Amino acid sequence: MGTIIETNNLRAYYITNAYGVERTVKAVDDITLRIQEGEVYGIAGESGCGKSTLLRVLLNAYDPPLTVVGGEVVYHLDGERVNAADMTEEQQRDLRWRTISYIPQGSMHVLNPVRRIRDSFHDFISAHRDVSKAESFALTANYLRDLGLPEKVLASYPHQLSGGMRQRVTIALATILWPKLIFADEPTTALDVVVQRGVIQMLKDVQQNEGSTLVLITHDIGVHANLADRIAILYAGKLVEEAATQTILESPRHPYTRFLIESLPSLDSREERLSIPGRPPALDRPPSGCRFHERCPLAKDICKTIEPALIEIAPKHFTACHVVEEELSHASAV
Amino acid sequence: MPQQSDGPKTPPPAPARQDGEGSQRLPLPDSSGGPRGVLLQIENLSKVFHIRQGFSSQEFHAVDKASIVIDSDKPEIFAVVGESGSGKTTLAKMVLGMEAASEGILRYKNRVINDISSKEMKTWFYREVQPVFQDPFAAFSPLKRIDGYLFETAANYKMANKKEAPRYINEVLSEVGLTLAEIAGRYPNELSGGQAQRVAIARALLTKPSLIVADEPVSMLDASLRMSIVNMFRNLKDHSEVSVIYITHDLATAFYAGDRIAVMLRGWIVEMGPTEQVLGNPLHPYTQNLKTSIPSIRSSDAWNEKIDLAVIETDEYTRTGCKFAGRCPAVMDICHDNIPPNVQHQGRSVKCFLYEDDGAPTSQKVATPALG
Fold first, then answer.
1. Number of domains within chain A
2. Co-location of A88 and A40 in the same domain
3. According to a count of CB atoms within 10 Å of the terminal CB, is the N or C end of chain B lower?
4. Contact, B310 vs B282, CB < 8 A?
5. Residue range A75-95: average pLDDT?
6. Are residue A63 and residue A197 in the same domain, yes or no?
7. Domain residues for A217?
8. pLDDT, tens digit, for every residue of B269-292?
9. Predicted local confidence at residue B15, as pLDDT
10. How far is it, in rounded angstroms, from Cα B211 to Cα B106?
11. What gap in Å lies between CA B245 and CA B15, rounded to an integer?
12. A-contacting residues of B 9-28, CB under 8 Å?
């Protein structure tokens, strides 16, 4: 299993210039990651931390004001290294939906309200493959049956379906051509727990049936816990921690991750839980040094001035924190 | 300023305090024969909508015979949970007087909410009962400074005169962890979601209400801010004697904050009782389903079995028997054609044929509606 997509020191900024006032929002700042073939890679973080921006750059689907100012996104397709920035329009169109697919945020609203579900499926399939209506209907019916969706969905209009069913239809739509790489942006955010569970179950099925790679973006750690193999924690445009799901949940090291995990309420206890002090920083003027230092109870002087580097503190466990780094060097010195 | 009551039975409540500093508890009229010490009484409350399709019209019970009682002696957080389309918001709208009830009893401090005159709604009811909504940015106009809302509310309800207003507002803001200096002169877009929601809650607190109806107050917020709002509700209950109806689809925060909980499904309250009992040991198959669907962060608890989802929402609303029969793992023949009764079982009320009334007194007053 090799890498399927990688980024190297990726920087993507929103650069606007309105009435001579220039404003730069550093939404993705120096992010390096490698996503392996066949894994579920979770990206977690609060709103405004750059999750969706990162996804747009990974998908190579961005327009100004979002600009990639540094670094690169590289796809590994059939043993070939393809730099996303060098692809032509045609190559990209060819790639999308067949090799790379995307389940957008709020995707239950993407279905055409005046077309039956099966017609929407035909529209999408016929755009990429030369199929007759009967063939695409058969393909769709088969696929939905495999995923356990009821047949009557096909003849329905979107408004007749419940939110969770619409969401699952959209996921089926995005994956019917068996893409190798699926991006999902907050696929369950607007849903309640029972429906959310059904949707996650289905994403899991799709991913496992074909061994696709799934990049899952959500702020809900609970969803990551049930789906992701590895989790990356984003804070204010920076990758602050990355490790296997188990490691992130059981022994998080970065203070932000620790807060995030510890503040989750659970049905085990009603004891008071602390919330993270302060608020996420604005990305047009990010704090100096470590971007978390203003909210961090462990912050030292060095955190205010020098940006911590992402280091491997244990095998395949990366974190960017001066305090953790210091503890480690102490431990190794003793 | 005597107030005129439209209610047939109850005399008007005593006029509210003059200075805004006195007790916020109005003495209850006791001549009505109604229960004493009851803040909110909901009994067999229904809301029926009609859906027209061509020539046919279909009845649609968004809330079906709901019964909830909230006492005034002891403030509590009453959580209402359920999936989308379960009638939670319709229930909240009726309590807030924004939607007229179709059937049943709905009284606030012994006054029938539907019968309160529009003038009294403004002068009395909305001073007592305040809403907090899901999206704080939709609650405030983007073109208005956010502190303007606070001064306006304080002036409208005569909570403080012009000179005292800033001090009073600052006092209320401190209850939600903000200061007037922090938000003065700022527009909503300059605040974070958590701050804006705190201001929305502070605005609701300005009138010194006895009841806050919060409809999904944290679902727009990030995990790190979510807990700060929920913690704040807990503080308000303990220190400011405000009862909160906390409507949410997030079971974990409902468990964390709620003293009692009602689980709704397609307009029905299927299980209701003390939160620890209902969520600790759920009896209704739907509540059990909800509980096991909470994504746990312990990987050992990952979901194993598959679940069924409703395909088409209206199918469940118009089902003749139990509305959960189509997805229930414990479904019996009787469930398809008969509406299950509300039974008292293990200290809570549960609407399911699986259980028999054990006659144990519950910690709450639940009217048992006669169901066919």
1. 2
2. yes
3. C
4. no
5. 84
6. yes
7. 3-99+180-288
8. 999 999 999 998 999 999 998 888
9. 45
10. 14
11. 25
12. none
